[in-house]
Amino acid sequence: MTDTKVHLLDGGTLVIDGFHAFWNRGPAGEVRFPCYSVLIEHADGRYIFDTGYDFDHVMRVLPFEKPIQEKSQTLPGQLAKLGLKTGDINYVINSHYHFDHCGGNKYFGEACTLCHAKELEASGNCQPFEHLGYSDMSFAPALAAKRGLKLPPDPLLDMYTPKFETVTGDQEIAKGLWLFETPGHTAGHYSLLVELRNRRPMLFTADACYSKKNLDMMCISSFHLDPTASLASMKRLKALAE
Ligand SMILES: [Zn+2]
Q1: Which domains does the chain have, with CATH numbers?
Q2: What is the pTM of this model?
């Protein structure tokens, strides 16, 4: 059996205000942050955790987030650097379905798409204050149609009919690959822990915890469905990290 390997794939950057990144704390001002995907090479196949944002979508719907993304920072570009193609990916896991975590799902027509059952439901029926977060529905064209959203023409989407598998609760989805429920930011947010040989595990918190500073201050972001649940999830991540 080959050892599990993790690669961080650079998906460019976006900007939010400091008062959004650190809710009711700030300071205000632009905070430019990286968007990345995690590629896990595992004995059972290749997994991608989150797929970043789609540049055209952000420019069309949320240009104030000032995306900076080279072609080499798209998923096909990042995988090519590793000698891989999008068709080499077996599973796509989404921490949640905000536009900056699912924008590249459409590249993976062959893969099985895995998420929390509550997240898939929420993305098809979100709260009014979540509309921008859930604005890129290209990851689920059928669901977009149900929401009455018309997707802009995209040759990738003509061929894209994703296969979803939903889960609930904490799950070891493959040996040493753990999904931990961390709701609050959204209804069905998952964090990922990867066990590795010869080093400590890696814990990917996605938007349940934006940064080490958030964790140190126990300060959640202003983007949330439920702030109390968000804070409980951050405490849970701190305990898991320890
Ligand atoms: Zn999010």
Answers
A1: 5-241 (3.60.15.10)
A2: 0.96
